[in-house]
Design goal:
The protein folds into two domains: 181 residues, Rossmann fold (3-Layer(aba) Sandwich), CATH 3.40.50; 135 residues, 3-Layer(aba) Sandwich (Rossmann fold). It is built from twelve helices and 13 strands. By secondary structure, it is an alpha/beta fold. The N terminus is likely disordered.
Length: 349
């Protein structure tokens, strides 16, 4: 999707086993008081309730014309509301790089304490990130990475390669006892690095399963309409196969429509991102959709936690360092019927 999760640096550290744990871990960095004179930090839940130095956070993201991006905005807003000491200045959001640059410059001129930016185009917005940093405003770069590490203080985002890798491993384990198994792939926009990373991860995982061959691939556009059209082409081209890896749950809605129209059910489907629709279908267990690989929008809530910590001069709870990390990569957990209840609260519409 032109507005989907972006291009994360591969130098990020693994951060927990799920988005939920990432948020819980980061909230511990917000503690303003210690529970004892020896300096032991209080639990995260207590830390959230104790306001500290007031922090104004500027939040700038692209237009929320996709379910995942809308969830990004909502996660940021909801997280900010949990803190008495946080004021959130949020822009309208735009996919026009010039407009988004203007919105960020307005936040810089307002002298916000910290900026959280999910750029419509990381490369194109690098200069405004540099401008903020040089003005003494630390930047939390959310998901789509800027072209220069000097343009941000901390990057947090998803693992596109890990999405494909975990999808491939899940499918491999389901089909490891089947001879001459065939899989197909419904990718996203091929001009995006994230799509190439998801495909590369998937292909690398399949190398561990010599009984499985990828027989077809179609690139869609991260929309319901494109998902339906491209899935119909895959179904027409392949009379039978054993598994489908779909990069995005929004386009997966269209793919499911095409599958129902074709009356096909001989294969299992694995989605991507973690929408509520996908999780509901997985829980019901009455369709080909058996799993989805997370690209958690809760990263926006964690970005607010990081921004607050930066504004208050704190580190991250549970780590020995005095400063927050430079890079945090979230783990792409596989959601199945066995664990879907754990992840349903993070599902987005």
């Amino acid at each position: 999707m032109s507005t989907t999760p972006g291009i994360p640096s591969r130098r990020g550290i693994l951060f927990g086993t799920a988005a939920v744990s990432a948020g819980a871990f980061l909230t511990a960095c917000t503690s303003n008081e210690n529970s004892d004179p020896d300096g032991a930090k209080e639990p995260a839940a207590a830390a959230e309730d104790k306001p500290g130095k007031p922090v104004t956070i500027g939040f700038a993201g692209p237009q929320a014309d996709h379910g995942w991006l809308n969830a990004i905005n909502q996660n940021a807003k909801d997280r900010a509301k949990t803190y008495e000491d946080v004021t959130l200045e949020i822009t309208e959001g735009s996919n026009d790089t010039a407009q988004q640059i203007g919105q960020i410059e307005t936040l810089i001129n307002k002298k916000v304490d910290v900026l959280v930016i999910l750029p419509a185009d990381g490369k194109a917005l690098t200069q405004v990130g540099l401008k903020a940093m040089r003005a003494g405003i630390p930047v939390v770069n959310l998901d789509r990475v800027f072209a220069s590490p000097q343009a941000y203080r901390c990057w947090i985002g998803g693992d596109n390669y890990g999405m494909g890798l975990n999808a491939g491993n899940y499918i491999g384990e389901q089909l490891k006892g089947k001879k001459n198994a065939k899989v197909v792939e419904l990718a996203g926009l091929d001009n995006l690095e994230l799509t190439r990373q998801r495909t590369q991860g998937f292909d690398d995982a399949l190398k561990n399963y010599p009984n499985i061959k990828k027989v077809a691939r179609q690139a869609a556009e991260f929309t319901v309409e494109s998902g339906q059209a491209k899935m119909a082409q895959l179904l027409q081209a392949e009379s039978s196969f054993d598994a489908l890896w779909n990069h995005d749950d929004d386009q997966g809605v269209g793919a499911e429509r095409a599958i129902k129209q074709a009356g096909r059910d001989e294969f299992l489907m694995v989605g991507g991102a973690g929408s509520k629709h996908a999780m509901d279908a997985i829980k019901a267990g009455d369709s080909v959709l058996k799993a989805t690989v997370l690209y958690p929008p809760t990263m926006a809530a964690s970005a607010i936690d990081l921004a607050r910590a930066l504004g208050q001069g704190k580190g991250v709870g549970g780590m020995a360092e005095q400063e927050i990390p430079a890079s945090i990569t979230l783990y792409s957990a596989v959601v199945t019927q066995d664990n879907v209840d754990q992840y349903l609260p993070t599902g987005f519409s």
